[in-house]
């Protein structure tokens, strides 16, 4: 007798479509036999990481047989020193994806709801669905979050609202006054996850910093990652800042060793190298200008972005364009699954990579 183990899975899980990752370079090598490939598909840092990180990882190699520090004391202390939060307000995650899942698992029960925007990061609906929650997707405004509509969409059974600033894959953002108005409308018992995965790339002096609001709003959780501007995507480390009570709860559902020793050491070192982040931000600004110019020269529209990527309108279904770029050894990201069937998202690379992407795109569209 065989059983239907698909039908036996939890209902939310049965309907899950797994997250689609950027295509790995090795996979394209295997498929097409190309050697010279550039990947501008996952918003990774084209400069790699700080040299301090490499040293810290090397020093950690001797301890490979030992479990990591399950409390991540050194990293939390480094976060405290840099940003001024008590250790009991910090939750470490296996990437900030882990943080998003911890929030869903701790706070959303079967049948309860969470609000997020159209074109928002795909992990929000996945995390909600996996725990049997109900997602409420609010139509975007100019590709970005319509915070007023999001606050109005909150139901009696809504536990969490997920917002990203800047958002991925659109690069859109909201301003301080919009956020403050939004927080004033959100009931005090509804948690707001403010995902700031790209905040280190923002160059505007007055840009909103979620950390400024954590003490004011007990229902606010700010998540950050080491995957983007710090260049540690492979190591999987991120963190959340929230009230002591929310942090207490998130740490109850966290795996005891969710962040490995190399990630802990690397992130601790990365926080010490502000100049690397500055260099990354500057390269990104120059690359963004290069891509905006190049896309405009090709007559293509794009969504203005404050992240390390830009989504542009191919003016036709994006998949054939994506495929043709793969043939040229250029990996970008189709975002049809984000409700943007004609758009591709390209991460900002080195100047030479951006130029190669633009040349390949020109050829593909010819
Ligand atoms: C990349 C990204 C993250 C971070 O992912 P990690 O798990 O930390 O690598 C979180 N939120 C958004 C919107 C992202 O684009």
TrEMBL record:
BP terms from Gene Ontology: L-histidine biosynthetic process
Associated pathway: Amino-acid biosynthesis; L-histidine biosynthesis; L-histidine from 5-phospho-alpha-D-ribose 1-diphosphate: step 7/9
Catalytic activity: L-histidinol phosphate + 2-oxoglutarate = 3-(imidazol-4-yl)-2-oxopropyl phosphate + L-glutamate
Keyword Transcription among UniProt keywords: no
Cofactor: pyridoxal 5'-phosphate
Keywords: Amino-acid biosynthesis, Aminotransferase, Histidine biosynthesis, Pyridoxal phosphate, Transferase
N6-(pyridoxal phosphate)lysine found at: 228
Listed InterPro entries: Aminotrans_II_pyridoxalP_BS (IPR001917), Aminotransferase_I/II_large (IPR004839), HisP_aminotrans (IPR005861), HistidinolP_aminotransfase (IPR050106), PyrdxlP-dep_Trfase (IPR015424), PyrdxlP-dep_Trfase_major (IPR015421), PyrdxlP-dep_Trfase_small (IPR015422)
UniProt xrefs under Gene3D superfamilies: Aspartate Aminotransferase, domain 1 (3.90.1150.10), Type I PLP-dependent aspartate aminotransferase-like (Major domain) (3.40.640.10)
Lineage top rank: taxon: Bacteria
Domain Aminotransferase class I/classII large residues, every copy: 36-358
Signal peptide positions (record): none
Entry EC number(s): 2.6.1.9
PROSITE patterns reported for this sequence: AA_TRANSFER_CLASS_2
Single GO MF annotation: pyridoxal phosphate binding
Family matches, as Pfam families: Aminotran_1_2 (PF00155)
Family: Belongs to the class-II pyridoxal-phosphate-dependent aminotransferase family. Histidinol-phosphate aminotransferase subfamily.
Subunit text: Homodimer.
Protein name: Histidinol-phosphate aminotransferase
């Amino acid at each position: 007798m065989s059983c239907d183990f698909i039908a036996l899975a939890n209902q939310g899980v049965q309907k899950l479509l797994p997250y689609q990752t950027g295509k790995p370079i090795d996979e394209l090598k295997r498929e097409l036999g190309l050697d010279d490939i550039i990947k501008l598909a996952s918003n990774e840092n084209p400069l790699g990481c700080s040299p301090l990180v490499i040293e810290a990882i090397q020093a950690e190699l001797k301890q490979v047989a030992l479990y990591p520090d399950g409390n991540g004391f050194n990293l939390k202390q480094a976060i405290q020193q840099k940003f001024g939060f008590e250790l009991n307000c910090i939750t470490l995650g296996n990437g900030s994806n882990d943080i998003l899942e911890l929030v869903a698992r701790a706070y959303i029960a079967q049948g309860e709801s969470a609000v997020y925007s159209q074109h928002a990061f795909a992990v929000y609906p996945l995390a909600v669905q996996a725990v049997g929650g109900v997602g409420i997707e609010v139509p975007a405004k100019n590709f970005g979050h319509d915070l007023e509509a999001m606050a109005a969409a909150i139901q009696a059974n809504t536990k969490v609202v997920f917002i990203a600033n800047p958002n991925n894959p659109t690069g859109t953002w909201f301003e301080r006054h919009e956020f403050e108005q939004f927080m004033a409308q959100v009931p005090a018992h509804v948690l707001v996850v403010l995902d700031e995965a790209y905040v280190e790339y923002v160059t505007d002096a007055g840009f909103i910093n979620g950390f400024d609001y954590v003490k004011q709003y007990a229902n606010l959780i700010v998540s950050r990652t080491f995957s983007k501007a710090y260049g540690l995507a492979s190591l999987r480390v991120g963190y959340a800042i929230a009230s002591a009570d929310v942090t207490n709860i998130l740490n109850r559902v966290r795996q005891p060793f969710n962040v490995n020793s190399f990630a802990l050491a690397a992130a601790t070192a990365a926080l010490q190298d502000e100049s690397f982040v500055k260099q990354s931000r500057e390269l990104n600004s120059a690359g963004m200008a290069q891509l905006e110019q190049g896309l405009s020269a090709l007559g293509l529209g794009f969504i203005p972005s404050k992240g390390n990527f830009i989504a542009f309108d191919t003016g036709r279904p994006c998949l054939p364009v994506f495929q043709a770029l793969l043939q040229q050894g250029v990996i970008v990201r189709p975002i049809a699954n984000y409700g943007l069937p004609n758009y591709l998202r390209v991460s900002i690379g080195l100047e030479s990579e951006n130029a190669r992407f633009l040349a390949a795109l020109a050829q593909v569209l010819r």
